[in-house]
Amino acid sequence: MAREAHPALPEFDYIKPKTLAEASQFLSEHAGESRPLLGGTDIFVRLRDGAWKENKFLVDVKGLDGTDVLTFDEQTGLTVGAAVCMNRLSSFPAVKEHYPLLAEVCDTVAAYQLRNRATVVGNICNASPAGDTVGACLLYGGILNVFNVGGTRQEALNTFFVGPGKSVLKPGDIVTSLQLPIPPKGMIGKYLKLNRNNRGDLAIVGVTAAAYPNQDVPSGVTVRMALASVAPTPLVVSAIEDYFKQEKLTSDTVQTAAQLAMDSCKPIDDVRGTARYRSLMVRNLAKQALTALLEKM
User: Fold this and answer.
1) Where in the chain is the domain with CATH 3.30.465.10?
2) CATH class in words for 70-180
3) Edge-to-edge, what's the strand order for the sheet holding 34-37?
4) DSSP label at 276?
5) Between the CA of residue 237 and those of 112, 259, 262, what are the distances in Å?
6) Could you give the C-alpha distances from 23 to 63, 160, 164, 293, in angstroms and in order?
7) DSSP letters along 247-262, please?
8) Class of domain 188-296
9) Which residue, among 254, 178, 179, 180, has the nearest Cα to 211 in the 3D structure?
10) Residue limits of CATH 3.30.43.10 in the chain
């Protein structure tokens, strides 16, 4: 049986609301068959491949109130509108200065042309365990601003993900922006990922690590790590942070911490790698990422 190498997009209706309220109302009334549209880099692939057959309406929320904002305040931190593309974000001077890990991560996603469309908020709302930018946003303490006709609210990223492709968002919810608070002074970070090619592929394993001086813990340093593609949701490794509360970051403790990272994950076998391979690569990449932090300190 012949297979079509590049299947066409299914038919859908494109909805362009004038206000957030109008968009939220439509999404609520068409729950299960509509989806907010930002960059579209994930949506169109999934529609093309038949993963989202039930979606009949794409609701374009770009340009609506708050979705295009990109600002930095020395008291409250960074606000990233849902429609702000990754290239714009990574080149923003305040991001380069105060959130260099986020800029680094954005620049690893696919190709430059795609990053002119792809958005960090879209990457988060996709709720993929393999999302490249999610780890950095988690380690920076990200909070999402959510609009709904029933009221606005905030959702912390550390409780946002509930399963592969699933989040706490409800029908009618529209994430308008991401907020990142001011990072701790002296915070450094590193992102490493393993994939099948240098560009344009999902991470087989992703490791995001960060550290900063902290005199409130015995070791004098806080070290945190987030993992991608090794659990049903993006995973923050609490064992790493607990370990480094007592232990300083050294070449010896890096070895133990890398094993802790490996022990914390629960990957699965899929077409991109086996569970065993992923686990071993978590240990290797965690060691590399922590060593990179050690060299920066």
Assistant:
1) 70-180
2) alpha beta
3) 13-15, 57-60, 34-37
4) H
5) 31, 11, 10
6) 12, 22, 25, 43
7) S---HHHHHHHHHHHH
8) alpha beta
9) 254
10) 13-60
Burial of 69 (0-12, 13-18, 19+ CB in 10 A): middle
Distances (CA, A) of 38 to 9, 174, 207, 208, 244: 17, 11, 26, 25, 39
Quote the CA–CA distance of 11 and 206 in Å, as a whole number.
Answer: 34
Q: Which long-range contacts (CB under 8 A, 24 or more apart) does 124-128 make?
A: 124/157, 124/160, 124/175, 124/178, 125/36, 125/38, 125/167, 125/169, 125/175, 126/42, 126/165, 127/160, 127/161, 127/162, 127/163, 127/164, 127/165, 127/166, 127/167, 127/233, 128/42, 128/164, 128/165, 128/202
Q: Looking at the domain 13-60, which fold is it? A: 3.30.43
Distance in angstroms (rounded) separating the CA atoms of residues 35 and 172 = 9
One DSSP character per residue, 5-48 reads SSPPPPP-EEE--SSHHHHHHHHHHTTTSEEEESS-TTHHHHHH
Q: Which residues pair with 80 in a beta bridge?
A: 70, 178
Q: CATH 3.30.390.50 spans which residues of the chain?
A: 188-296
Which pLDDT tens digits describe the chain residue by residue (297 residues)? 455 556 777 888 899 999 999 999 999 999 989 989 888 777 777 777 777 777 789 999 998 998 999 999 999 999 999 999 999 999 999 999 999 999 999 998 878 888 999 999 999 999 999 899 999 999 999 999 999 998 999 999 999 999 999 999 999 999 999 999 999 999 999 999 997 666 556 788 999 999 999 999 999 999 999 999 999 999 999 999 999 999 999 999 999 999 999 999 988 887 778 889 999 999 999 999 999 999 988
